[in-house]
Automatic annotation (TrEMBL):
<dbReference type="InterPro" id="IPR001763">
    <property type="entry name" value="Rhodanese-like_dom"/>
</dbReference>
<feature type="domain" description="Rhodanese">
    <location>
        <begin position="25"/>
        <end position="101"/>
    </location>
</feature>
<dbReference type="Pfam" id="PF00581">
    <property type="entry name" value="Rhodanese"/>
</dbReference>
<dbReference type="InterPro" id="IPR050229">
    <property type="entry name" value="GlpE_sulfurtransferase"/>
</dbReference>
<protein>
    <submittedName>
        <fullName>Thiosulfate sulfurtransferase PspE</fullName>
        <ecNumber>2.8.1.1</ecNumber>
    </submittedName>
</protein>
<dbReference type="GO" id="GO:0004792">
    <property type="term" value="F:thiosulfate-cyanide sulfurtransferase activity"/>
</dbReference>
<keyword id="KW-0808">Transferase</keyword>
<dbReference type="InterPro" id="IPR036873">
    <property type="entry name" value="Rhodanese-like_dom_sf"/>
</dbReference>
Length: 104
């Protein structure tokens, strides 16, 4: 570990797609408008400004995604401080090539 910050666990969008088992928790931390414009079908929208109040199962991995990976990294740090096991999705929706719900 270097400095004061622990690195969050992370996966690529391809790794997320290959790990998907139907029971995973994926939080999309973009704004509601961004989420409506197109999101991964199994994602739940919890905008970054609401993430500190998130209440979920603490015995389960939580994957977080945003547009590019920056907001999800912030969300991962907040959730980790709240006791969750968090995995950031690197590259965010910019890198996602799977199916998308909503949008055009």
């Amino acid at each position: 570990m270097f400095g004061l910050f622990k690195r969050s666990n992370s996966v690529s969008t391809n790794e997320l797609a290959s790990k998907w088992n139907g029971k995973m928790t994926l939080l999309d931390v973009r704004t509601p408008n961004e989420f409506r414009a197109g999101h991964i079908p199994f994602a739940k929208n919890v905008p970054l400004n609401n993430i500190a109040g998130y209440k979920g199962k603490d015995n389960q991995d939580i994957y977080v995604i945003c547009q590019s990976g920056m907001r999800s990294k912030q969300a991962a740090n907040i959730l980790k401080k709240n006791g969750y096991n968090v995995i950031n999705v690197r590259g965010g929706m910019n890198q996602w090539t799977g199916s998308v719900k909503g949008g055009k």
